[in-house]
């Protein structure tokens, strides 16, 4: 039997997380659904037949970013308290399997549940509107769910990839912070994250001005334009691919360090 990664043991760990938390997951899910329904209800226009598209999209963003961070922190909560940490580390499974079982819920289960639930609520809301306001022209009321994404995340735009980039960095950074801090891990992680963003932004500003000088002259200087393009490309690659994997690697090494 593979001592590092065994599918049967990994499945057992995934099932363990569900069995131990299903009641809390269920109650949280009901509250989340009710909040989303309330947002749709309050987001209607004066006539009640049109739901603001910003409300529709915003409720999904809150679910993915805000609640996603809380969920990521909760899944790895066993490392926030010493007794829970010791109990979890004594489970007959490798640290890689324990790490992957948590990632399974954060990166696979959670997004599927959030997006599918939100789309069902969206569909049900407009079916109710069609039934309740039969005289309202539906072309003014019904905005296809796919169009919501096309509006905010057009194919030509980079907003979609930027959104996914921020999402992955938020979740992976939260996981890393949960493994590093034993008490008030979410608050400490948030403080560390905002501090890091401020420092990186300052360093980026200084670096750009040191390398490129006055940005207003770039349009008249092809060499500076090429440097800026290369700089942006490297930054995008780091943000989209390197940083999320780096946070996960640090989190995994920290988990491995805790192994008893």
From TrEMBL:
UniProt keyword terms in alphabetical order: Membrane, Transmembrane, Transmembrane helix
Membrane-spanning parts: 24-43, 55-76, 99-121, 159-181, 190-212, 232-253
Keyword Membrane: yes
Designated name of the protein: ABC transporter permease
Organism encoding this protein: Flectobacillus rivi
Taxonomic lineage of the native organism: Bacteria, Pseudomonadati, Bacteroidota, Cytophagia, Cytophagales
């Amino acid at each position: 039997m593979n001592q590092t990664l065994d599918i049967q043991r990994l499945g057992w760990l995934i099932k363990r997380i569900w069995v131990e938390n299903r009641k809390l997951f269920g109650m949280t899910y009901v509250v989340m659904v009710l909040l989303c329904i309330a947002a749709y209800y309050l987001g209607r226009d004066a006539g009640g037949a049109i739901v603001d598209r910003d409300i529709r999209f915003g409720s999904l963003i809150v679910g993915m970013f805000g609640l996603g961070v809380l969920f990521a922190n909760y899944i790895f909560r066993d490392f926030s308290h010493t007794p829970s940490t010791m109990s979890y580390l004594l489970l007959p499974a490798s640290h890689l399997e324990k790490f992957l079982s948590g990632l399974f819920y954060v990166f696979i289960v959670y997004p599927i549940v959030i997006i599918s639930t939100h789309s069902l609520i969206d569909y049900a809301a407009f079916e109710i509107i069609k039934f309740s306001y039969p005289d309202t022209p539906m072309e003014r009321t019904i905005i296809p769910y796919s169009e919501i994404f096309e509006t905010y995340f057009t194919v030509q735009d980079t907003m979609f990839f930027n959104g996914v980039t921020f999402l992955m960095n938020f979740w992976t950074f939260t996981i890393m912070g949960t493994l590093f801090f034993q008490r008030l891990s979410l608050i400490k992680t948030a403080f560390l994250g905002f501090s890091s963003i401020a420092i990186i932004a300052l360093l980026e500003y200084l670096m750009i001005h040191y390398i490129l000088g006055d940005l207003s002259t770039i349009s008249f200087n092809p060499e500076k334009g090429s440097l800026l393009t290369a700089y942006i490309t490297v930054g995008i690659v780091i943000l989209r691919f390197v940083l999320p994997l780096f946070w996960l690697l640090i989190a995994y090494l920290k988990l491995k360090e805790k192994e008893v």
